[in-house]
Amino acid sequence: MYKIGDCVVYGIHGVCRVSSLEKRKVQQKMVTYYALVPLEQEQTVFLVPVDNPVAVSKLRPLMTRQELDSILRSDKVQNSLWIADENQRKQIYRQLISGTDRGALMAMVGALCRHKKEQLAAGRKFHQCDENFLNDAKRILDREIAMVLDMTPAQVEAYILSFLDN
Hints:
By secondary structure, this protein is α+β, with helices and mostly antiparallel strands. The protein is built from seven helices and five strands. The protein has two domains: about 55 residues, Beta Barrel (Thrombin, subunit H); about 100 residues, Methane Monooxygenase Hydroxylase, Chain G, domain 1 (Up-down Bundle). The longest helix is centred in the C-terminal third of the chain and has 22 residues.
């Protein structure tokens, strides 16, 4: 159970702070909710029912610096392969964007960054749908990593690329 003040990652919404536990009456029954406030949009509040395992499964604690470094050094991220079939790539990337596996999401970023670099070096364009997936994944990861490393989201990309370029 999360406590008030905890920072958590809430699916595609990114890093949120548990601002309160709220009780609301729903169909003649009192339901307790986590009130989550995204750090990027403090005027927004997400209510996640504490007793709903599917909804709560989309919440996870911030990773630690050790977990982050371990993920970045992993073969999964370092040797991520490009998925040549565009339809298959879109389907897999959609699942990764909405999932909770940060290692797989970082592997996706690695594959997209390498492919973008190759495309631009060959004088070809990087597909817009791939650019969108890259931007979405970076948005999800950057805020969490920035909090873990105590840096700004703008500094995160250089940190990640230093691992991917090794």
